[in-house]
Amino acid sequence: MSREENRLRIVRRAARELQDGFYVNLGIGIPTMVANHVPDGIDIVLQSENGLLGIGPFPSEAEVDADLINAGKQTVTIQDGGSFFGSHDSFAMIRGGHINLAILGAMQVSATGDLANWMIPGKMVKGMGGAMDLVAGVKKIIVVMDHTSKHGDPKFLPECSLPLTGTNVVDMIITNLGVFRRADHDSPFQLIELAPGVSEEDIANSTTAKYEVALEKA
User: Fold this and answer.
1) Measured between alpha carbons, how far is 7 from 145 in angstroms, rounded to an integer?
2) Beta-sheet pairing, 52-55 with 212-213
3) Are the C-beta atoms of 117 and 173 separated by less than 8 Å?
4) Burial of 199 from C-beta contacts in 10 A (0-12 / 13-18 / 19+)
5) Most buried one in 8, 18, 173, 188, CB count within 10 A?
6) pLDDT at 72
7) Do β-strands 190-194 and 212-213 pair in parallel, antiparallel, or remain unpaired?
8) Residue 78 CB-half CA count within 13 A
């Protein structure tokens, strides 16, 4: 399966976690694709920390408005009733606990839910952005990522080796190989789903973090 097909599968699985009435923040990268895969019958409000509420699907070429961008500088659409405001109001929403769910990318996640998703030492970065506020203020954090790095190294680890965005913050991990979830922040992650064509052995060979196996029936 191609890289794009794998990512589409991750995005569609993440979209199944959306619940009617949720206020949702989508991180930069793979998470932004979720906007185009909201299930029928689910009404959510997408928020971007640069000051947008009510983001719609990505625009067609005819709909592109260069003045409408999300936090990742991608052009977006705005749904009827959407609103625009300053970053101070946006972060008040996040820090005040008013966002139900954030779907974020990651470079590493630890067995205890630590998240590293903003910096690789030695590479030029502009800063952490809103990631630290999101993991501290949002009620539920889902990470979507490839299971291993481009070099084949596991990204679900006993401990993160990269600078942390937050400690003990991740509730769910969705990768191209499977899905991990934990009941609360004192519980271990459980492997609950395998991607089609993936075995438990495949997961074990690509993961160094400890986890439990509690596969759910389809």
Assistant:
1) 8
2) unpaired
3) no
4) exposed
5) 173
6) 83
7) parallel
8) 15
Closest of 168, 161, 165, 166 to residue 121, by C-alpha = 161
Q: What is the spatial distance between Cα 161 and Cα 163, in angstroms, rounded to a whole number? A: 7
pTM reported for the whole predicted model: 0.94
> What positions carry a catalytic annotation?
49
**Is the separation of the CB atoms in 78 and 56 below 8 Å?**
yes
> pLDDT digits over 102-154, tens only?
999 999 999 999 999 987 666 655 566 688 999 999 999 999 999 999 999 99
The segments of the chain whose pLDDT lies below 70 read: 120-129, 218
Q: Is 135 in a helix, a strand, or coil?
A: helix
Distance CA 16, CA 93 (A): 24
